[in-house]
Amino acid sequence: MTLAVKESEELYLKSFRELEKSRASGAPGWFAKLRNLGMEAFADLGFPTTRLEDWKYTNLAPLTGVNFQPAQYDFSDKLAEQIASLPFVSFETTRLVFVNGHYCRELSSLAGLAESVKVTNLSEALRTGGSSLEAHLARYADFKSHAFVALNTAFMEDGGVIEIPKGAVLEKPLHLMFISTGGAEPWVAYPRNLVLAGRESQAAVIETYASLDGNVYFNNSVTEIVAEEGARVDYVKVQAESEAAFHVATVLAYAARNAGIQTNSLQFGARLGREELSTVLDGEGAESFLYGLYVTNGQQLLDNHSAIDHTRPHCSSREFYKGILDGKSTGVFNGKILVRKDAQKTDSKQSDKNLLLSESAAINTKPQLEIFADDVKCTHGATVGQIDPEAIFYLRSRGIGWEDARNLLIVAFANEIIDRIKFLPLREQLKKTLAAKMAGGTR
Residue 375 and residue 343: Cα distance in Å, rounded? Predict the structure, then answer.
């Protein structure tokens, strides 16, 4: 471990001690204990290094070299106007808005939501109490062996809490919006989200990250999703951060018997981004559909680690990721399918396809299968290539310019993932975001 990394870890420990002194005494005892356990785990683990197999291609020196301060913000009419101009804001959804990691009541809207559906922010949920929060929070994302989950657990204060009752069917998505305003000094926020879908319920949840400027900041987020027996959850996460920012995210989805979870991950921004997305199929007949798109340029690094854990028989999973890499950027894909001994009759397919637009772009891809059952159907594969020159020639022969022909092929490649998203307004906005990214931005 370098001296700089050690000093960085000490800063987080110091910040935690100072924060503990200032935190209100109203937090329940179990929550305070949980945060302390998170900091103890981080102190033991420290920041991961490239010596670890799972971090082999992601050097955290750019992140650990920055002295991040706790995030703050002041609401104003001017800020509200600036946020209103961002993409993803105008959707007609129930929404919770967080600015620099803090709940913003003025911009949030719970209009039209059934009383039986509980949608609130974490700090309010802690204040009002509720056994479900204690029973589920931090029970799925493993903070004891994952440093960034531990760090989030130690500092968590706010985020979205969604509880969907048994049999409820929500017609509109629930939207968790995280807006970063930047600032003179680099700051860090720790969004913590919990989604509980009751038996036979159906819901869609959108989680978006966007920024107002190109300043340096760090979002370390954790989202836990629980789909009880027969529930269906459609989850979409969009990362469109500043390309000077850092974004480390952990998403853990748990599916019970006959439950189904479709997860869509779309990443466009961040100087250094890392997403660990895991699904546990813990009941017969559970299903997982996992789709991802990562688009990089400049000197970005986006690292995708996924894991689908088949623990019971008769479960199925489909995983399909695509990467589009330009400039001197780097992509990482590590997808693991684990089939445990008792998970007979598993049906699982995994694919990662990458399009390199520059000779200087690089992708490190590693699909994995670990199978301990003997009656399964499992396949996996990865491809890396460039735009087909014959396809370009064909389009140009029809009077289409070179750049337009190139963009048409890129969009067609990406749309196989984007078109999986069921909410039309989001799907259309993502196509605009992709076009802006190809033109050199992230809006």
Answer: 9
Cβ(341)–Cβ(373) below 8 Å: yes
Helix (H) or strand (E) holding 44: helix 29-45
Instruction: Extract the tokens encoding 301.
Output: 């690094």
Q: d(Cα 56, Cα 377) in Å, to the nearest integer?
A: 30
Question: What span, in angstroms and rounded, lies between the C-alpha atoms of 9 and 39?
Answer: 11
CA dihedral 11, 13, 18, 21 (to 10 degrees): 180
Length of the chain as a residue count: 443
* Residue appearing with tokens 């799972």: 54
Report the SS3 class of residue 355.
strand
Question: Amino acid identity of 364?
Answer: N
**Which residues face 385 on adjacent strands?**
355
Cα Rg of the chain (Å, integer): 21
What is the mean pLDDT, run by run of 10 residues, along the chain of 443 residues? Answer: 74 85 75 94 95 95 93 89 88 94 94 90 88 91 96 96 96 95 89 98 97 93 98 98 96 98 97 98 97 97 98 97 97 96 96 95 94 94 91 88 90 96 95 88 51
DSSP-derived 3-state class of residue 408 = helix
Order of strands, sheet of 377-385, starting from the edge strand that comes earlier in the sequence: 102-103, 94-99, 174-180, 202-211, 232-240, 260-267, 287-296, 316-325, 347-356, 377-385
Residue 419, number of CB atoms within 10 A of its CB: 12
**pTM of this structure:** 0.95
Of 178, 420, 434, 421, residue with least CA distance to 296: 434
